[in-house]
């Protein structure tokens, strides 16, 4: 006989799977997709995430950031869903439209060198980058952050 807790977990699992595209992987408490084969501009990466049912990723905490980092290559650069495209130095999450809850800037960033408005991640640090650069990307399956 199945316990009540097991039944609730089974129902929640089925409920989650209806709303989280199968391509997303649970990392920590949230679902992410990491593009490892293709590169794109920030705008194209954002559109790709939207087509998958998500948004370019932002992080809710350092713990979440560190959990996701374990799935990344330190030799690749990834687009994140953080940008200051509307107002310089006012970084927002593409998913929520709010300031990001967690950032881990490289010590010299953000520097807006050559009008950089989109945030990338390389080797565990965030950089403001030209939105037209070609990078891999990370999507999130929610609008939490």
Automatic annotation (TrEMBL):
<dbReference type="InterPro" id="IPR001304">
    <property type="entry name" value="C-type_lectin-like"/>
</dbReference>
<dbReference type="Pfam" id="PF00059">
    <property type="entry name" value="Lectin_C"/>
</dbReference>
<dbReference type="InterPro" id="IPR050111">
    <property type="entry name" value="C-type_lectin/snaclec_domain"/>
</dbReference>
<feature type="domain" description="C-type lectin">
    <location>
        <begin position="27"/>
        <end position="140"/>
    </location>
</feature>
<dbReference type="InterPro" id="IPR016187">
    <property type="entry name" value="CTDL_fold"/>
</dbReference>
<protein>
    <recommendedName>
        <fullName>C-type lectin domain-containing protein</fullName>
    </recommendedName>
</protein>
<dbReference type="InterPro" id="IPR016186">
    <property type="entry name" value="C-type_lectin-like/link_sf"/>
</dbReference>
